[in-house]
Amino acid sequence: MRLLSAILALLLLPLSATVFAQTYTDLASYCTDMSEVSTSTLVARTRGIPRSQAEAMMQGMTDPLAIRMVKEVIDFAYSRPATTSLDALRTELRNLCLAKKIFVQ
Known about the structure:
The protein is mainly alpha-helical. 63% of the residues lie in helices and 0% in strands.
């Protein structure tokens, strides 16, 4: 239960203002960073945390860009089996970003 609480508490922390405020000069760097900051959400999925709990963590968020991106990560993560490895999820997320199918700026 403590692990679940810790994961939920950290679910959205990596999607901080510094990532969104940063200017990227190339898509590869942007996609790498976005796949890395999405790790806690992906871990929540692989640990079997229900989607409703992941979505509940967005309460209180006010930045429309951050909300959209978190929703995209949740949609992505919960459309894959919970048994998918973290590395596979991160790789697929990065590849979707490179193909401009997720995290489109």
